[in-house]
Amino acid sequence: MSVTATATPAVVSPRATRTPGEVDNRSTYISFGLAYVLGHGSAALSKGDAPVLDLPGWLPIALLGAGLAIGTVLATRAALRAQSTATDPDEILSGKLLGAAWITAFAALFLTITGLAAAVDHPDLQNLLWPTGSGFVVGLLYVAEGAARRNPLHYTLGTWLALTSTGALLLGDPGFYWVLTLAGGGAYALAALLERRRLASHSR
What we know:
This protein is mainly α. The chain is built from 6 helices and no strands.
């Protein structure tokens, strides 16, 4: 009597792989979020009629600038890593143009704020315009990137930053800085958490 064994093919679970060209924004969100919390938070605590802390006037803007600079570098690295796995020439070109847009936008913002401060002879104007202008510019860049990359989370974060950064101008010290700290920093913290879920869903 012979027994015929039927071979059952082994079921191999597919490995989760990230979609080619997908940008991981978590490190950027964390860096920008810390810039908002430390930069705007220190300004909120040290300005107004009854400041909580006695800090040098240059410290809040320095903390904000350092965080934004680090975040921009991390965003550029993430975009370059994504481009290295992309295969669509149009997608690669789109990523390069979006990266160049950051340089153009902040160069134009620098010239605008510096020119306005010199024209009205009000040096303290820069302390107000830089937080608002940087949030507005970053928000619009996120909107453009979110639309190009079909990333609703990035698009929504950009919309929120653009609106809250400009809307905060309606408030005086220190309310202006508290809005930027809580609304901006909180949005980045939430976005960093949701970004992990978004990447996991794209890896399935």
